[in-house]
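Hi R.,

Here's the chain you asked about this morning:
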Amino acid sequence: MRGRIVLFIVLAVAAALAAAYLGVSAGAPKAAVQPPPPTTASSPPGSGHDRTPGPGPTRPPTAPSPHTEPKTGPPAPPPPAPTPKAGATPPPTKQPPSTGPVRFGKVTVTPSGDTDSLDVAPSDHRALTANLPDREVKVAPGSTEPVTQSFAMTLPLTDGAKGETLKVGVQGFAVAEEGAYAQLTLKLNGLSSVRYYRSGWEGDLVEVLEAPATPATTYRLEGVLEVHQKPGTGGGAADLRVSSVDASIER
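And here is the predicted structure, written out as tokens:
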């Protein structure tokens, strides 16, 4: 019995000591938990404190201010013209169009030497007269064969202002007796005129052609003279003559 009491006391003391020990452990301060180091651009997460931080992010270049005035200075000299190679033909120089009046150039009549005179206005070369002494066809009474003859003139115009008119007049004489007639055909570049002088006609003739006076253009006047007798009429005589050509350039 006494031994049990002693055992009980020993166990109680042991329990008290154990409780005291556990109380001391529960009241002891806990160790502070250190937070992880902050993450930087040069140190990826999980890297240690003793790492040397790398260079920061690269900044974009600073754009110039829109209000910054551009620098002024003398303009850059033009590049030198290329030197032509030896023996090379230089390009032709384009001449500006003339603004002066259109004039007649050298006028010719064909066949050559078929004019009695060719008078060109000496002051401005914008008018001329050509006398044609031998431009004539005739048919006798009772003849059955027509008679024809032709002439031509070349009228070159110089360069100059536009908007003017070239006038060409042909003068002459025509006679057509009963049963006969005469015919005069004129052409000036794209223009043409055919004139008949019927039976009973007798008198002077004047035929005029007009065309735009295009600068630097050559005009050609062509004329054909014809006399005929009407078939089966035993017609009379006919005569057609061109005596002169007048040409002028007018506004």
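One quick note: The two ends are 165 Å apart (CA to CA).

Cheers,
M.
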